[in-house]
Specification:
Elements lengths: L4 H7 L3 E3 L8 H8 L4 E4 L12 E4 L4 H10 L9 H6 L8
Parallel strand pairs: 1-2, 2-3
Length: 94
Amino acid sequence: MRSDISELMQMSDILLLPSFYEGIPVTLIESQAVGLKAIVSDNISKEVCITDDVISISINNEFEWIDKIIKNMIYDRKNNHKKLQEMGYDIKNV
């Protein structure tokens, strides 16, 4: 258990979720809240891809993963808090 997840994600450049099986990963919701770009496998539920900071690709194409990582390492972070609130992902209002 940690209380500094937001700070850890703020220090990160990109989130990778190469999952073979995944439901709704809370980690991906948290990353979108802090504007952290995420590259995820297409096995992750599409419902959790709330912002355009999520790039979904096939788990079986390692060259596409490498390409997407290189092309998305530098970007301007967005404040997605309001968008996530509107979608019902706000711990203070739920």
